[in-house]
UniProtKB/TrEMBL annotation, chain A:
Keyword Iron part of the UniProt annotation: no
UniProt-listed GO biological process terms: amino acid transport
Name of the protein this chain belongs to: Polar amino acid transport system permease protein
CDD domains with a match to the protein in the record: TM_PBP2
Compartments in which it is found: Cell membrane
Domain of life of the native organism: Bacteria
Keywords: Amino-acid transport, Cell membrane, Membrane, Transmembrane, Transmembrane helix, Transport
Chief location: membrane
Pfam family, one: BPD_transp_1
From TrEMBL, chain B:
Species annotation: Tenuibacillus multivorans
Segments passing through the bilayer: none
Pfam families (UniProt xref): ABC_tran
Name of this protein: Polar amino acid transport system ATP-binding protein
InterPro entries: AAA+_ATPase, ABC_ATPase_HisP-typ, ABC_transporter-like_ATP-bd, ABC_transporter-like_CS, MetN_ABC_transporter-like, P-loop_NTPase
Length: 219, 240
């Protein structure tokens, strides 16, 4: 056995910095994904067939191709066409944000459609217009279905974010690769970074559980 | 107040309502009865356009709600509806269930809306439940709150869609009593019901439906003692 964790000690600050890099673009991607996803969800439950068809197609493209392909496409292939040299950071938030929006839109759509049809009818029968009906009656009830699923999506996104290492973005994962290559010691670096991912995901999981318990309280 | 002319409603190939012609006068209480699947509920739901008619006309206060561009929200605000399964808003307290719609669509102050809600809740005997959430109420209490919620909009017409069908037997009476006193107060009402005793006692007129058609219309005494059509007699024999 040839293990020596003391060797990575000088590189620990370098790797820890990766936490903020990863969290930074994951949070931005989540925000982008949430807003675009909410908008697409509204399109999906609308009555305009053409828009619905486009939204469904958009979703199926992002769900039907590998994320790593989407990322490399944005970073390597798009500049070839547009002539714009896109940065790794921009590629990352764009790809993860758009990809996440596809999943988020499905989560929100399903959450809204799971609300008892009678709620909508009761609101309609009272003469309540569409907007207040959605905002005050349907969405608060849909949140119960949406929030736990959304939390899962955030957890997935945090883990999948490691893929950005392939476009040379210096996130947590890429830093482990760099340190591993530098020291010819991969085991220690990957274990260290793996533990950090694990702690981050566990924290999100606990947060999700707390949220779920709070939502159940009002029953 | 309501006039229905040649109303048709189809779901795909299935014709649920065929050539319905009738009217409801101001202050009149109409009970709509008939076997399951006869189109009673669909007919009721056409009156406030929860189902949009396939053909024909429905006038509410002289306004044809099948006319394109008609303001359906306005018409719905004049028509209260009570559902079989209550459909209270579970995330709102009883008080908010009653005040939400008036505060959202009518020009009333919070104080007015809440005062009115208090009055309505006391008239259905549920003043003590004002701060409760719907899930903590019994079925009968939920339905009484649902009636109060519909009345909070001060409708000119009330539609009841099998208001007691989802209730435990011992709770039917408390809900029927509320509907009866509402009828006595002069409210115009259309009630889809399986409670024959109630229909007989409260209604000014019975509409008997079968296979999507109005088969017979008569005063309750007449209808229950000497129905004209075989179909109605056959039905009454089974349910009475």
């Amino acid at each position: 056995m040839n293990l020596d964790f003391s060797q990575i000690v000088p590189y620990i600050p370098f790797m820890l910095e990766g936490i903020w890099v990863t969290l930074g673009f994951v949070i931005i991607a989540i925000v982008i994904g949430f807003f675009i996803g909410s908008f697409i969800a509204l399109v999906k439950i609308s009555h305009i067939k053409v828009l619905r068809w486009i939204a469904d197609f958009y979703t199926s493209v992002f769900r039907g191709t590998p994320l790593i392909l989407q990322l490399m496409f944005v970073y390597y292939a798009v500049p070839q066409v547009l002539g714009y040299d896109i940065s790794p950071f921009l590629s990352a938030i764009l790809t993860f944000g758009l990809n996440s929006s596809a999943y988020v839109s499905e989560i929100i759509r399903a959450g809204i459609e799971a609300v008892d049809k009678g709620q909508r009818e009761a609101a309609m029968a009272l003469g309540i217009p569409y907007r207040p009906m959605m905002i005050k009656i349907i969405l608060p009830q849909a949140m119960k279905n949406i929030l736990p699923a959304l939390m899962n999506e955030f957890i997935t996104l945090t883990k999948e974010s490691a893929i950005v290492s392939v476009i040379n973005y210096l996130d947590l994962m890429r830093r482990a690769q760099v340190v591993g290559a530098e020291l010819y010691r991969n085991f220690e670096a990957y274990i260290f970074v793996g533990a950090i991912y694990y702690v981050m995901v566990m924290m999100l999981t606990v947060l999700g559980k707390l949220l779920e318990r709070r939502l159940k309280k009002s029953d | 107040m309501i006039k229905v002319e040649n109303l048709h409603k189809s779901f795909g190939d299935i014709e649920v309502l065929q050539n319905i012609n009738t009217s409801i006068e101001k202050g009149e209480v109409v009970a709509i009865i008939g076997p399951s699947g006869s189109g009673k509920s669909t007919f009721l739901r056409c009156i406030n356009v929860l189902e949009s008619p396939t053909a024909g006309h429905i006038w509410v206060d002289g306004e044809d709600l099948t006319e394109p561009g008609v303001n359906i929200l306005n018409i719905r605000q004049k028509i209260g509806m009570v559902f079989q399964h209550f459909h209270l808003f579970p995330h709102m307290k009883v008080l908010d269930n009653l005040t939400y719609a008036p505060l959202t669509v009518k020009d009333v102050s919070k104080l007015e809306a809440e005062t009115h809600a208090h009055e309505l809740l006391s008239s259905v005997g549920l003043s003590d439940k004002i701060d409760a959430y719907p899930n903590s109420l019994s079925g009968g209490q939920k339905q009484r709150v649902a009636i109060a919620r519909a009345l909070a909009m001060e409708p000119e017409l009330m539609l009841f869609d099998e208001p007691t069908s989802a209730l435990d037997p011992e709770m039917v009476k408390e809900v029927l009593d509320v509907i009866k006193s509402l009828a006595k107060s002069g409210m115009t009402m259309a009630v889809v019901t399986h409670e024959m005793g109630f229909a007989r006692e409260v209604a000014d007129r019975i509409i008997f439906m079968d296979y999507g058609k109005i088969v017979e219309e008569a005063k309750p005494e007449e209808f229950f003692s000497s129905a004209k059509t075989d179909r109605a007699r056959d039905f009454l024999e089974k349910v009475l």
